[in-house]
Amino acid sequence: MQTPRLSDTRLVGIARWATNRMAHVKNPVLAERVLGVASHRIQDSRTRADVLTEAAEARLGLGYPPRHLTQAYAAELVCADEHHKAGRRKAAAASAAKALILAFHRVAHLDGTTSPLATDPARFTAPMRRSRTLRALRAPRGRSAPAAVPPEGRPLRLLFVHSGNDNFLPTVMDRYRQRPDTEVRVLNTAADPVTAPLAKGMGRMIACGLGVRSGGYADRTEEALRPHLDWADVVFVDWCTAAAAFLTLVDPGTARVVVRLHSFEAFSYWPHLVDFSRVDDLVFVSEHLRDLAVATLPRLREPDAPATHVIDNAVDLTRFALPKKPEARFTLGLVGVGQVAKDPRWALEVLRVLRRKDDRYRLRLIGGPMNPDAGPALARYHAAYAEELAPLVAAGAVHMSGHTDDVPAELTEVGLILSTSIRESWHLGLVEGAASGAVPVVRDWPFFADKPHGAHSLFPRDWVVSTPEEAAERILAVNDTEESWLKAGHEASEVAISSWDWGTVGPLYDQLLPVAESVGVPAQRTQRTPVE
Predict the structure, then answer these.
(1) What's the CA angle centered on 342, arms 356 and 380, to 5 degrees?
(2) Which of 122, 144, 225, 388 has the most CB atoms lying inside 10 A of its own CB?
(3) Closest listed residue to residue 430, CA positions, set 529, 312, 348, 531
């Protein structure tokens, strides 16, 4: 005898009981199972999406990643696809935006020590690859002409674009501002009075990408960007975020477009809004970030995808090679403690292990503090961190330097530099510390530890450890004598400066941005990295 099907109304009532439990219980295993069964049987797609989204937001509001996050955002994409099939592109765009905001909520990827995207990028993004709406969004809109070879007889025109974050640009821009054969302009899309009102709002960017022309947004975007694109020979967009999505809404003309992706963008929705048919070169600062992006973004696997390059961050490392203070030998340093991703609790455990054997060891925390008001997930991490930190501070074992504008001077106090992060793209603070002569101790960043590339492939193998106990063992071994510590620090400095100093990395940018071509000398282009 067949069991009668419950009505959607009844199923919604059951699902909302589960949602209420999920909003109040730390580990609502039963409620999540009930939600899964009830939502699966709801027939109406809009109702199903609303029920799953409401439950997901209840968990996210408590600072916990929902176990059904993929199911929830996939349900919203089903609604988007129904709108798109019916020709309701504006409604499809709004629904797709809602799905992507949910999928890439920071609690799920940035404010905790795990991420479903890092764990299994193909599985987590599968609904995005299936979605009719997102397939239409990433369909190549192309360009009217290929990127042109810059004309001879005038400087190469370089336009640097960002959306409010130029932290990694000054060294690059200064290189070309000082050259007589290049002319540099900068566009901050978040501050420029013409672009700022337009370069925000993912919903209307998606709508524009889907061909919605109501409201004049596409025309105003074209008018705002055209003078910049017509002037530039090469456009360099730093961070694959809002500026990259905004810029690729329009045909770049003959300008060559280069986009650089650092780290957090890979855990955001912005790369999914970029029209990569209008990007000539995509730059990553490490191979493991390139691997993650390729696994996450279907467009990068297609034959006409941008050329991909891995080029280290631009930083002048020679200025960090200053004499160490005597107390540096037993001082660990951690640069950056304001994010959960840096996982400073791991550093505290390393310190505790060391001090059980030698209480001369101290930890110096460099950078602004964590803000527990930023969200419940971060607040929960901060509470545990503060509880562990307090007795070490009371014992004089931890010094908190706070924010500093003179990192080289601060590192003269540090003899052993830590990277304790769960994820990094390149870890500038660690590399700067190594250049200063501090002995590097690098956690094999968990987001990438089981992947072909990560900290274990970016740095010398003897720098990398898996546990706090291994970190302590490395420290005790290299610091057995003052001579062994000095030798290890000197070798680390040589590796860092010879491998990653701007004197080595700068010419790679000359190859990427065809500076030599602008004065009639062919530049060697960085070879396109094949994608399997």
Answers:
(1) 85
(2) 225
(3) 312
